[in-house]
Design goal:
The structure is a single chain. The protein is of the alpha+beta class and about 130 residues long. The protein has helices at about 30-50, 75-80, 85-95, 95-105, 110-130; strands at about 1-10, 15-20, 20-30, 65-70. Helix 2 (about 75-80) packs across helix 4 (about 95-105) and helix 3 (about 85-95) crosses helix 4. The chain is elongated and about 55 Å long.
């Protein structure tokens, strides 16, 4: 199964998503779920139009595929600002709140090591939450 990398970025009022290597499909939305729905719909529409017009379906979309979503740190921190406080993220990641504010504002870009720390901490939290039952 082919993995399609989807980049989600903040665009001012909402978020947009593009499939890497396929510039003809771009969608927007206010939530990740909305972006996923809009992207699936745009892919189906693209394939349908290609087939109806006897245009080859883009190679990336021919055959089975899986969408793999990516977001930069600035977009992530903005997107989830109502869910994760900077103090909570500091406890999870060990990264100073002030530094997280710089990342969220776009004033500074995190190094790969910092990106990895944030991503690893969030994945650990997700695994921990998945192990809890009520």
């Amino acid at each position: 199964m082919r993995k399609l990398n989807v980049t989600i970025a903040h665009t001012g009022n909402n978020y947009c998503a593009m499939i890497d290597g396929l510039d003809s499909i771009m969608v927007s939305g206010n939530t990740v779920d909305e972006i996923k729905r809009n992207l699936e719909s745009a892919i189906e529409e693209t394939i349908s139009v290609c087939k109806e017009s006897d245009i080859p379906v883009p190679e990336l979309l021919s055959g089975p595929y899986k969408l793999d979503f990516h977001m930069d740190v600035e977009s992530f921190l903005g997107f989830y600002k109502e869910v994760f406080s900077k103090s909570g993220l500091e406890r999870l990641t060990g990264i100073n709140q002030k530094q997280l504010w710089h990342y969220a504002s776009g004033g500074r870009k995190p190094r790969k090591k910092q990106i990895h720390r944030i991503e690893s901490a969030l994945h650990r939290l997700g695994e921990e939450l998945l192990s809890i039952s009520f």
